[in-house]
Amino acid sequence: MDPRRVIPHVRLIGLLACLPSLSRASYAQSGPSESGAVRLQVRSVGGIPLDGAQLRIVATDPWLESDERGLFVVTRVAAGNVWLRVRRIGYRPDSLLIVTSSGKTLDTVMTMERVAVDLAPVTVLGRRNIQGPMAGFYRRQATGSGRFFTRADIERRAPFNLTDLLRGIPGVRINSRPQSNSVRIRGSRCNPLVWLDGQGLFSTDIDLDVLDPMSFDGVEVYSTASVPVEFQGNQRASSSCGTILLWTRQGEPRKASAPKRKKGEPSPAAQIARLLDELKVYTAGDVDTVARIDSMSVILPEYPDSLYEARAPGRLLAEFIVSANGTVIIESYSAVTTTHRDLVEPVRRALAAQRFVPAVRQGKAVQQVLQLPFTFVPDSTARRRKQNPPSPRTLLDI
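RE: above sequence
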């Protein structure tokens, strides 16, 4: 069902016995001495804040928009009976009658009911979905005997020098020199073999402290006996003095970067609402064939280090437009709800690379807005859930 055609719910907050009639609720703005303020948080039924919800008090006023906390703060609201009208794509529009007092702030909450039927969620099962150079890092971390530092570890420690990160590792000694520090592993007398992004630095005695520790996604340290076979060097450069593997942070594609809005520029959610009103973008209920993920090439988000290490599950409901050629218009992306803000960027990067089969309306490919759920599950939790798999879900219909 199209929520734009749903009659808003009506709810009342305040001293209803004091109201002369619903039709006489006051919307007019007045002077500071006769006005109050409203602080409204909009949530989903599950209690998660709704980003991009729109609120209007007076029919002639522009729509206001909730922030990532689902909050609206409206000042200089006329004291008395005031209607709050809230809408969000995919949720049932709602109305709330409040009673404001002069010089006071009224705090209230609105829970919005979802009317869209969700697509089956994209599930990220821990580290199994990692691709690229860091896939090997996490695989070795799970099964190897070295010492590992993830991006989260590095950021938490915030070392000034790379050798500062290595201090305290059993068997590693840092020799301080006037010009540089040297690293010795397990009593060896020579420098450990260093690899940078899978390439051995065999031709130079590298000073690790010339490298910025904050520029790495991962660092691995191995003693002589535990070096993985693919990093044991060759006849010219042996790993007999230990090995250090460095994995630099990968630059994010420009199109995947969070767009910076100019002052006064509408948010992605507001732009989508406008395009829907102008019939330039369609919902699932408006097309003959809905847009769907190209199953031949599924791009999965990376599980954030901090959440994975804490074995913390997470959920995010992504909203975006699929163009007529099957790509995501990444500027339209936003998180409708999320349990952790750390999930927003990994999902953005995955969607920027994901291909879709576009929606079809009257025999022609068209743009469609999708709300796609993502579920992040640590491996240990996933194994338990496999015993009781969730029931399948149907296509989104908003």
